[in-house]
Amino acid sequence: MIDLTVVLRARGDSRRLRDSLRALGDQTLPATRVEVVIVGDGAARAAAFADEVPFVLRIGDLPGATPAEGATGWLHLARGRYCLFLDDDVAASPGLLSAHVDAHGGREDTIVLGRISPAAAAHALVRYVVEQCDQDRRRAAEGGPAPRFVDCEWGNLSAPSAALRDAAQGADGLRR
């Protein structure tokens, strides 16, 4: 059974994509419970790394797709119970995938927002944005206003795959 589909947006160079895939391969969640769908401009490059990863790797290359099509066009490929969205510049810590699956607790009505830690050498603006997002998420956890959708774009967020499919079809599958 596939618990988690990692939707990895490939935008950078091949080295960055390879590093991200290697980090996903070094997870505490067994590779048999994970699949990775590569989307974005760099998706076609991912095929070169298929033999280097322990999980199922799918290519969701949608050349010429509009942003909306690119955001939802891969959903038919996702076999995991939950989808986790990451960028190829994220080096996933070894427990990241397990933490997302565990945080859902088997429920179908949850959205999980993970923490993002910029590299120490990251540009000051990147560090500032990440710190602001973390503050927003802490306030929401303490009963404050929920982060807006734009705050969560591709940033270590997971949700039930079925709810995402429903939402993509215009249904009210994601409850608040």
TrEMBL record:
CDD domains in UniProt: Glyco_tranf_GTA_type
Domain Glycosyltransferase 2-like per the UniProt entry, residue ranges: 14-116
InterPro entries recorded: Glyco_trans_2-like, Nucleotide-diphossugar_trans
Protein name: Glycosyltransferase 2-like domain-containing protein
